[in-house]
Specification:
single chain; 60s Ribosomal Protein L30, Chain: A; 4 helices; 2 domains; alpha+beta; five-stranded mixed beta sheet
Length: 234
């Protein structure tokens, strides 16, 4: 013999079913007037609607609370970005799946050392990442001016990116979420195309950019350094 599955209603619905059956039975047996049955059924339907509406309102309130929390977090994030821009003159580029920070982090001629005066902006950047982008991939892009050979500058840009990456790890960012790439003397990415040389001539091109990547699989590809070095310095 096959079993019969009986769905047992619960809560107000269960009470409603029980009361409905009782009222119908009573009416059929002559124990209650039809008007009384209809009135009691109407009251029951009203109670059930009120309970369901109360449940809907509770769900709506929870969703609104979550939306408000996201809105507050977005406002805090925008404030942090404005502070970076205003205090450190950082420019922000919004990409398809990333945000690029063109930070005023520069290097001496033919050098890859992070200067002490650039520590504050990198520290603030690390704080912003930890607060608002803890799971994002961070790409440090290294650049040079065009003095010297392209091969040498490719490696120098990589060393600069690695230096900044290492500094960011001292500020609490995970090395697993950090990568360093070099664009060397790429003309398309120079701040002042062609500016090069020691002193102040090419300093704006001797820099790094910081990219917060929300789609690490499609992020900036690592640019491999060449193994041979030609004469020339940057």
């Amino acid at each position: 013999m096959k079993g019969v599955i009986v769905h047992r209603p619960t809560g107000t619905a269960a009470k409603g079913v029980a009361l409905t059956l009782t009222l119908l039975f009573a009416a059929g047996c002559g124990y209650a007037k039809q008007d009384d049955v209809q009135r009691d059924l109407a009251d029951l339907r009203s109670d059930m609607r009120a309970e369901m509406e109360a449940g809907d309102r509770a769900v709506e309130e929870r969703l609104e609370s979550r939306i408000d929390a996201v809105d507050r977090r977005m406002e805090q994030m925008e404030t942090a970005l404005r502070d970076l821009r205003d205090e450190f003159e950082v420019t922000v580029e919004r990409l398809e799946n990333a945000i690029r920070f063109n930070a005023p982090v520069h290097f001496a001629f033919d050098d890859d050392t992070v200067r002490p005066q650039d520590h504050p902006v990198l520290e603030r950047f690390a704080q912003t990442v930890q607060a608002y982008y803890p799971n994002a991939s961070i790409t440090v892009e290294g650049f040079t001016d065009s003095a010297g050979s392209a091969a040498y500058n490719q490696r120098l840009g990589q060393r600069r990116a690695e230096s900044v990456k290492n500094f960011l790890t001292t500020q609490g960012l995970s090395s697993e979420h950090l990568r360093a790439v070099s664009y060397g003397e790429s003309q398309e990415r120079q701040i002042i195309p062609g500016a090069a040389g020691p002193g102040e001539e090419g300093w704006q091109n001797r820099r790094v950019a910081l990219v917060i990547d929300f789609n690490p699989e499609g992020g900036a590809a690592r640019v491999a350094s060449t193994s041979s070095e030609k004469d020339g310095e940057r």
